[in-house]
Every structure is written in structure tokens, then in C-alpha cells.
Amino acid sequence: xxxxxxxxxxxxxxxxxxxxxxxxxxxxxxxxxxxxxxxxxxxxxxxxxxxxxxxxxxxxxxxxxxxxxxxxxxxxxxxxxxxxxxxxxxxxxxxxxxxxxxxxxxxxxxxxxxxxxxxxxxxxxxxxxxxxxxxxxxxxxxxxxxxxxxxxxxxxxxxxxxxxxxxxxxxxxxxxxxxxxxxxxxxxxxxxxxxxxxxxxxxxxxxxxxxxxx
Length: 214
Hints:
With 214 residues, the chain is α+β, with helices and mostly antiparallel strands. Helices cover 49% and strands 21% of the residues.
């Protein structure tokens, strides 16, 4: 066996040492970069709670005027239709980095369930009011001002339907909207506020026919 052939030359050892040194320098550079990223992440995590709180404050301030307008208009609608002293409150918050708005109904100082208040009438009125407000804020050049209300008066007492329709008619006229209302209530409840009234009647040939009432 020739031991001389197994011993690396000085030149090869130097090249190997250079490669190891280069790798070590590269690892050190990577470590420095990683440490800097960790420090930035730690700094962000330290200020995140304050930043989130500040964002909530800015969002509340930014949408405060809009929410106040919502409260005023919806409160007016509920009082006008139901004839009772209820108040709508809009509460803004940030959840999952998104603006959320929760609506509350205050009745004689206590909170009322929106879904069942006044037999569901409160929910009817809020639903229509929010749709009208949302539609009014769309670009009229990109969206047709047309709204379909399918049995949105279903939980209203018959004696409240004329008030409900009168308010919708007033708002639609003010905003230049066209509103189609579908209802199972007696047609005479809509006479004072609808421009035209169509009724569906059974027909032996076609199953149903449209009859113009007004």
C-alpha cells in the first residue's frame, strides 16, 4: 500500500479550508439576516395591541358620521311605522381585521331582540331600511336604482302596512328609486302609496293571470 497517495496535498487542504470558510461566512450572513427579521417581528408584536386599538379608534371616527345617520334614519322609520318610542343603536367594532356593525334596539331603556321585537316587525323595518340606505350609496352609473321587496311586510300587522308603504314610497321618490313590493296583504292597504297595483289570480288555462288593479 502506498501511504503517500492517501495523504492530501497542502494545496487541496487549502482549497477545502477556503470552501469551509466561505460556507461559514454565508451561514453567519444568514444568521444576521434571520436575527434582524426576528427583531422586527418582536417589535411589531410589541406595538400590535396599541396599533389595533388605534385602528379601532380611527375606524370609529371615520364611520361615526355614517353610523349616526343610520341610527337617525332607522330610528325614525321604526317610530314612524310602529308609533312607539324605540331607538336604533349601531355599534362598530373590528373583528378579524374587518369592520363589523351590530345593531341594537332599545325599548324603554332595555335592549330588545331585533328578530322577535314587535312580532318581527322591527326586523322587517330594519331590513328594508338598510337595503334602501345601501342602494342609495351605490354609483348610479353602474347600478340601476331598482329594489325588489319580497314579503318584507310579512310580520307587520295589517294596520301598520299603510304606514310602512307610505314611508317606502316617500324614500323611493326622494332617492329616485323604483321599488317592486310583493305582498300577501289585502290590496287596499297599498292604494294610498303605490303608483300601480297588480294582482295574481288563478286561471284555468294558464294557471295564473295578472290583473291590473290600479
